[in-house]
Design brief:
InterPro entries: 4Fe4S_Fe-S-bd, 4Fe4S_Fe_S_CS. This is 4Fe-4S ferredoxin. This protein is an alpha+beta fold and about 70 residues long. Helices cover about 15% and strands about 25% of the residues.
Amino acid sequence: MNSEITIKLPRCKGCGICVAFCPKQVLAVDELGKVMVVNADACIACGQCELRCPDYAIFVDKKVKA
């Protein structure tokens, strides 16, 4: 399974909750205090980042390889 992660930066307050709950260290907080994808290939599309975000700023689009 592959996935696409979308981050709505205007909504992100940089709380780091998504980073903390990601089991594969796919996300990180940048110098500006916003979340960024640092290891997209490691994403297992578990959706923990999306579920835990209090500001609905991150979305995981699960794509099934044919």
